[in-house]
Write a structure and sequence with these properties.
Largest sheet: 7 strands, mixed
Number of strands: 12
Radius of gyration: 40 Å
Strand content: 25-35%
Helix content: 25-40%
Order of helices and strands: HEHEEEEEEEEEEE
Number of helices: 2
Structural class: alpha+beta
Length: 265
């Protein structure tokens, strides 16, 4: 049987083909648009990922640098910080208050750092050399720290100053048996902690520590231009102290001495 198409049927078929072709083209266009959007989104995600990785890398570098810096500070503090002497920088710049390891100096210095000893063993204060305040700068012995320095008025005005020696980072109760002798212009005073039973100073000490963090204080109310106050600081563990026991082995402490002007006169 033969089927004949009329003109109208042919038109309908042609229209259907056109619609189909248009639909196919529209789908292709949508697919291309979707592919473009996907590519754009993927590129943006890759870029964001790179930015995040870069930021994280920078943060890691900064963190490592901070840790290294903290370690370096801790290292140098441990290495040089056992006994530090300082003057107020404002007083140094404006009033000429300066430090030196010798009576003659060629530059103003605001901070001095004494050498330290590791694994210091207890000794008797009676065995210390007699000339400890006759040597300038650091002159440690086998089991004691000794440091001599000068506070100098290099300015033009007579001033009054005060100074204090402080303790910090005390571990294992080592301050119970430590002794600190301070020579000021040749006059010696030995400081120690109050007896553990609270009954005053130890028999070998001249004075008790002023507080749990302050060893002693000093002042000069007529510190004239060109004047020099000489200080020698000696630190040791007193073997005759009843609190000098094995439980303080490995104990540490840090000392600092700070000077500042309290008034011009």
């Amino acid at each position: 049987m033969v089927t004949y198409k009329t003109k109208d049927d042919a038109a309908v078929d042609a229209g259907s083909d056109a619609v189909g072709a248009a639909g196919e083209a529209e789908r292709d266009e949508r697919s291309k648009t979707a592919d473009i959007l996907t590519l754009r989104r993927t590129a943006r995600e890759v870029k964001q990922h790179k930015v995040i990785v870069r930021i994280v890398s920078i943060l890691v570098i900064i963190l490592v640098a901070l840790v290294a810096m903290a370690y370096a500070v801790s290292y140098f503090y441990d290495k040089f910080g056992s006994f530090t002497v300082m003057v107020n920088k404002y007083d140094m710049i404006n009033q000429g208050l300066t430090l030196s390891e010798t009576p003659n100096y060629d530059q103003s210095i605001a901070t001095l750092n004494a050498d330290i000893l590791y694994d210091m063993t207890n000794i008797s204060g009676d065995d210390l050399p007699a000339n400890l305040d006759k040597i300038n700068g650091a002159h440690n012995g086998e089991n004691y720290i000794a440091y001599t320095f000068y506070l100098i008025n290099s300015g033009k005005d007579t001033v009054a100053y005060k100074g204090a020696m402080t303790m910090e980072n005390i571990t294992l109760g080592v301050d119970e048996a430590v002794r600190i002798a301070v020579y000021k212009n040749g006059e010696r005073t030995v400081y120690g902690k109050t007896k553990s039973n609270g009954n005053g100073k130890e028999s070998d000490c001249d004075e008790e520590f002023e507080s749990s963090t302050v060893v002693m204080s000093t002042k000069n109310e007529q510190f004239r231009p060109g004047a020099k106050d000489k200080f020698t600081v000696v630190v040791w563990l007193e073997g005759n102290d009843p609190d000098c026991l094995d439980n303080i082995i490995g104990g540490t402490m840090k000392l600092g001495m700070h000077f500042e002007i309290i008034e011009n006169t």
